[in-house]
Amino acid sequence: MTEDLIQQLVEDNFVIRRNGEAEVCHIDYHVEKVTALDGEGLVLETEEYLEATIKWDGCCHITFGDKGYLHLCGVYDIMAHLALIRFLWTDAAKALGIEEAEIVGEE
Ligand SMILES: [Zn+2]
After folding, report:
1. Ligand 1 center–CA 42 separation, angstroms
2. For all residues of the chain together, what is the average pLDDT?
3. Based on CB atoms within 10 Å of each CB, which residue in 7, 49, 70, 93 is the most buried?
4. In this structure, is residue 37 part of a structural domain?
């Protein structure tokens, strides 16, 4: 995915609140998924998506909902996680004959 596509997907789908401007040890994020827009594209409704803490050493603590905790230890784990989700979806899409099997933005 290109940086432009990543930026667009994040802007279109999520509302992000960031804490930790002056914090040197970690930055915390609260992310909500946009679930409804008005006719002009303004956000009307959101739902809880995840909480994330990213630490000075690259460790990430990410919690989806009540129990969906992930510890991703730096950028390698993050890339592996993204690759895994992409692999699982593409593998299932092929097995199930889903026609939208190409991930948009792949070179
Ligand atoms: Zn770690």
Report:
1. 37
2. 88
3. 49
4. yes
